[in-house]
Amino acid sequence: MRTDMEMKNAVVGKNITKKYKNFTLNVPEVEIPEGFATALIGENGAGKTTLLNAIAGIRLDYKGEFTFFGEYDDKDRETNPAVRERMGYTGTENYFLPHWTVDQVREISKLLFEKYDDDEFQERYKELAISASGMYEGGKKFSSLSDGTKTKLMLASVLARDTDILVMDEPASPLDPVMREKLCELISEYISSKEGRTVFFSTHNISDMENVTDYAIIMEHGEVVEKGFVEDLKEKYIMVKGELEDADAAKKILYTFTSTKYGFEGICLADDLDKLAGMDIATETASLFQISVAVMKKNSRIG
User: Fold this and answer.
1) At a CB cut-off of 8 Å and minimum separation 6, what does 258 contact?
2) Which residues neighbour 240 within 8 Å (Cβ) at sequence distance 6 or greater?
């Protein structure tokens, strides 16, 4: 099991809040470990995009403070080009203006970022099959592209830069299964290509992204309700299956519980496992998907 003493953070947030009419983001502390892929997981409306966009500087109307790479703060992110150079972002389809063409995306990237490599962009353009014809189409407007192709263009643009952290809002959602697998490959390659490189992404596709996720942050109604390295979470939470005759007793102990006419299953905190002694149960390692759903159900306001 990892310890906090071993973890160096790419981003640390303290007392991050943002109030809306019917929702409040309230995160006393959030940490994104350096050199790993961190998944931000939660239901719709949990506050994932608000938190992610605050970190990326897409929105600035929050309270609290962030520290980047152990030396820069929020103001540095906005005023010091060195910080922006080290951060890459992919988000909604509105990140690039609708009327921009592919050529304009390239030209603006060259102007904005010193460490942008146009040859690398061209390679990524081909690798991600951004054009269905296989030919480069520089005159294509961003607004004319499908949601999946918009995401691929953003990926090509950000991967053409020499950055230290990628912040990505739901990068897998508009992609087909083959491209989701490719996205996982790209994330792994990015992290392994340079020491300290970090990826922070929000996702609804927990199962598709599990293999590339090192650290998870789970949110519900504006708050972080669980966090940790995936290997540690899989020690903290255990999947339990048992006979129907023990269901009523087990239900009082399990973290989450479901039953059928054949038996029951649910997530059990490892610390509570001994309370099931004497029952005919089987245990297995829970997936990140199962853990995430259990934690979200436990903290959800949905009845």
Assistant:
1) 264, 265, 266
2) 250, 254, 265, 266, 267, 268, 273, 276, 281, 282, 283
The tens digit of pLDDT for each residue in 149-202 reads: 999 999 999 999 999 999 999 999 999 999 999 999 999 999 999 999 999 999
pLDDT of residue 204: 81
**Which CATH number do you get for residue 157?**
3.40.50.300
What CA–CA distance (Å, rounded) separates 169 from 11? 16
The span from the CA of 190 to the CA of 198, in Å, is 8
* Tokens linked to 302: 């949905």
Range of the domain at 164: 4-231
Please tell me whether residues 144 and 51 are part of one structural domain: yes
Confidence tier at 215 by pLDDT (50, 70, 90): very high
Inter-residue contact 216 to 38 (CB < 8 Å): yes
| Model-wide pTM > 0.90 | yes
